[in-house]
Design goal:
By secondary structure, this protein is of the alpha+beta class. Helices cover 51% and strands 16% of the residues. The strands form three sheets. The chain has a four-stranded antiparallel beta sheet, with no helix packed on it. Strands 1-4-5 form a three-stranded mixed beta sheet, with helices on one face. A hairpin with a 5-residue loop joins strand 6 and strand 7. Helix 5 packs antiparallel against helix 7.
Amino acid sequence: MDFTFSQEQQMLLDTTRRFLQDQASFDIRHAQLHQPCGNTHPIWQGLKELGLLAVNTPAQFDGLGFGPIETMLIMQAVGESLLLAPYCASAVVATHLIDKLGSETQRAGWLPALAEGDCIAVLAHDERNTHHDRMAINATAIKDGDQFHLHGHKCVVAHAMSADLLLVTVMLQERLCVFGVPRAMPGLRLVPCPLADGTLAADLFLDDVMLPASAMLGDDEPEGTDASAAVSAALDRGLAAVCAEAVGALDKLMAATAEYTRNRKQFGVAIGSFQALRHRMAEMLMHTEQARSMSYLAAVRCTDPDLAQRERALSAAKVIIGQACRFVAQQAVQLHGGMGVTDELNISHYFKRLMVIEMQFGSTDHHLQAFAAKLA
């Protein structure tokens, strides 16, 4: 199989890398930790000017209409720079969900705003004690004439504090529905909870949030289409995207660790010359290259119309990449010694981000069990 990127794809990767190296450096990241990145932030505006926010938006809504491969390349650069902005949440997951589920009016209103960087949208889906079951939703919507009343709780919604629009999943009678809820809506309460990697997440509490029928993505008829398939497809896009992000972070960890072992001397020689450490670095490289291959598989399969094959491939990718995240990050910290856990070195920041990625869109253990069940 040919894994060579086209000239346009390589230019996309190089352009994204150059921009993020300049505008999302390690020093800038330090200043942004635990702070929301809104749509007026310089980095977000830079992503807009490069057209990166429009990659997954269809051409008829002022987008570029690219696919998962281009998203994978951008997310690899995002992982290399440890970008704190909600690129995956808004420009990948939310954009795809609105495109697949929204009515023509909603798509015409929201998609150009997302592509132009004027709006940040985030999917609020996960709930407590669901054990990564995507469809185990307890939040509810009750129809009252031409309006809906939303009740429930969503936990650890990454970038919710930055969002202008929250796409909240609820159960309406026996079907899953998605509502577009403005962040300043009465009855919606956000409790910030920073993640280990510095991403600012929040718990959402829906205390009788009253919305018009136009806020529901799609239609509001009792016999209308269930949103489960569209939500799963959007989450699969997000899973493939964070797999690519992990590869970018792993590459940087490998480069930093190799550089350190070449320069750090013990007994008058570089520690990189010690056979035991060279074997360990070789194992780290093998895990990284396996993760890269599986990220390619995830990007190719995340749009597969065969649901069983898609789920199998994505679970396999998340398992291999999750194992690589844990092994490579732990070895990089150990090879750096005590300095590896300090905030002054970027090693600890990559370590924390990879640990969060391992838990996103289902943990390694969850996907290993899911893959085994699908094989059975």
